[in-house]
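User: Batch of two.

Assistant: Item 1 of 2:
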Amino acid sequence: EGARVHKVKEAHQCLESGEHDDFKQDIEYILSTMKGDSSANIKCLSAISLARKCVSPEFRQFIRSEGLVSNVFKGLAEAANDQVT
């Protein structure tokens, strides 16, 4: 008899896992560019990118399920503190 493979994911599970990884990388990058020494232009572009991603119900659910809502608002507040002169 052939060898049995255990714990094989279904196709939809692979897609969800990949989507989760994409969302995680996206939010980490966006939040990292909203703080620190990033220019005001980069912070604005990151805020716009975040807003575009938040149109997706799956992305919003990811943010809630990962407990990142407060991090998102903190990042937006920090980005807003950098006033353009």
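Item 2 of 2:
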Amino acid sequence: MSEEKLKQLIEYLDSRIRMLEEELKLLKGLKEIMEDKVRRPSAEQSKEEIPVTLSEVKWRSYPSGEGEWCFADELPESFIEELRRKGIMDVDGYRYVYKRLSGGKEIVARKALRGL
């Protein structure tokens, strides 16, 4: 095989490698999106499933010990949309309150109804 043919073959292989690396990068991104969907609760959860999901969230306690909070994106989208509209909701023994912080981050606070 001539030197020119070898150079052409090397160029072809380089272009194929770049193309495959780009495809691999896209596939990894798609996989991350799918894994994130699996980790997050479904936005299409039924009303019966939401209390179970709410109890599974990693709630953070307020320093005062009165109530808990979590980031809104850790909760089902359907619940957050309804909470945004209503502002306050009572579900399964807790009162949930939607809050938007000054930096734009959304949180949900909750307190046990028996303590209210």
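The longest helix spans residues 3-39.
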